[in-house]
Specification:
Blueprint: E1 2-9, H1 14-26, E2 33-39, E3 59-61, H2 71-88, E4 92-96, H3 98-111, E5 115-120, H4 131-145, E6 150-153, H5 156-164, E7 173-175, H6 183-186, H7 192-197, E8 205-210, H8 219-232, E9 236-241, H9 247-256, E10 263-267, H10 274-279, E11 283-286, H11 296-302, E12 307-310, E13 325-328, H12 333-345, H13 347-361, H14 367-384
Parallel strand pairs: 1-2, 1-4, 2-3, 4-5, 5-6, 6-7, 8-9, 8-11, 9-10, 11-12, 12-13
Length: 389
């Protein structure tokens, strides 16, 4: 069985880490060949392409596959994908992300690929954008859905939203959680040397946020709450892990609010350093307005760190209110300030929520479990093909 995965770009991000882990894991399965097609990774978000460098022939970069909408370039990408699928003749094309999900599925259908799978890592439409954009993206997803054999979702919320939008049908969806290597997170510890590297003292209460510095990720909400929190608890520090186009803007806003000494920017970090950074955090906050199920949440819980999150998309599936953290209605700034302050002042509460979170995610988010479930899905879909023996 040959499986070709397609993703728009391999920047440092959860969907990209999921895809790479899936492809590498699937290559260890018997009688299965897996490869990956991606557009180029450009910009301050970094690139995960070096992770695939040791595997000769695994990764194909398609220059025409770019994230911004561009009708001519998108048409070329669609044509190139269809040509590539005709040449490689995969049994399954498995797409990821919005642009690659649309062009990859349509190109696979044109090339006659018998099984087309799409993973919904996050919604293409929703309250985070305007009516016209939602109409466009819903229509595009319905169109691509007609040629999709099966959908994989990383959270139940994605299945509910897409079915409600008339995309696919019940029974055409399978939830496979976005697994990762648990061991480094289970071993995460409050290393004082790592703290000192970022100018943090042992007494500081560190609120961490792991996300690209970009719109819809919720950094503005955290900044808005910061002045009041710092007045109430001067030991609070905010550690922002990641980089992006909004870094200068966020730094300027922190300065304008008078909290620049309390905000620390790590810049772009390789994924393997995230467990050590989680180890020096006391609380992890996730305020995204558009997310399937951010890997930062189960990773924080694996490190036994309590989480505070907006009730957006799949967050509620791991952020269990007053069990693993606190779940709040998006925009509830008073609630956000109150919960963060409560956690900052109560080490016992942080320990209780963090330990409960670890027990929740440890059996469910193993990387090998994700790969095994994906492989089992491929086998089921292959058995259902007309003429399969």
């Amino acid at each position: 069985m040959r499986v070709t995965h397609v993703i728009t770009r391999l920047i440092v991000g959860g969907a990209q880490e999921n895809t790479i882990a899936s492809v590498l894991g699937l290559r260890q399965k018997p009688a299965l060949e897996a490869d990956l097609v991606s557009g180029p990774a450009r910009g301050p978000e970094g690139s995960l392409e070096p992770l695939l460098a040791p595997c000769s022939g695994l990764l194909t970069i398609l220059p025409e596959l770019v994230r911004p909408l561009d009708p001519w370039t998108d048409w070329l990408a669609y044509r190139r994908l269809a040509e590539l699928f005709r040449a490689r003749r995969p049994d399954i094309v498995h797409t990821h992300s919005g642009k690659a999900g649309l062009l990859g599925r349509l190109g696979a259908a044109r090339a006659g690929v018998p099984i087309i799978v799409h993973t919904i890592h996050g919604p293409s439409f929703g309250p985070f954008q305007g009516r016209l954009a939602n109409l466009l993206f819903r229509s595009a997803e319905r169109h691509a859905g007609k040629v999709t054999t099966h959908f994989v979702v990383v959270a139940d919320a994605m299945e509910h939203q897409y079915l409600a939008a008339g995309i696919g049908r019940p029974g055409q969806y399978t939830k496979i959680l976005s697994g990762f290597d648990l061991d480094p997170f289970l071993a995460a510890a409050n290393d004082l040397e790592v703290r000192a590297r970022f100018g943090l003292s042992p007494e500081d209460i560190v609120v961490g946020k792991i996300a690209r510095l970009f719109k819809l990720k919720g950094h503005d909400d955290l900044l808005a709450a910061a002045p009041g929190l710092v007045r109430a608890c001067p030991r609070l520090k905010f550690l922002l892990v990641g980089d992006g186009q909004w870094r200068a803007r966020l730094a300027e806003r922190a300065s304008a609010l008078g909290v620049e000494k309390h905000f620390l920017f790590t810049g772009l970090v390789p994924p393997e350093t995230v467990p050590a950074l989680l180890g020096i955090m006391d609380i992890v906050v996730h305020l995204s307005r558009r997310e399937g199920l951010a890997r930062a949440l189960p990773q924080a819980l694996a490190a036994a760190r309590p989480i505070v999150a907006w009730d957006c998309d799949g967050a509620r599936e791991v952020c269990l209110d007053n069990e693993t953290g606190f779940l709040l209605a998006p925009g509830d700034m008073a609630g956000l300030s109150e919960r963060l302050l409560r956690l900052a002042q109560d080490a016992g509460l942080r320990r209780r929520l963090g330990q409960c979170g670890r027990q929740l995610v440890q059996p469910r988010f193993a990387r090998q479990r994700m790969v095994d479930e994906l492989y089992a899905l491929y086998l089921r879909l292959a058995e259902r093909r007309p003429g399969a023996t």
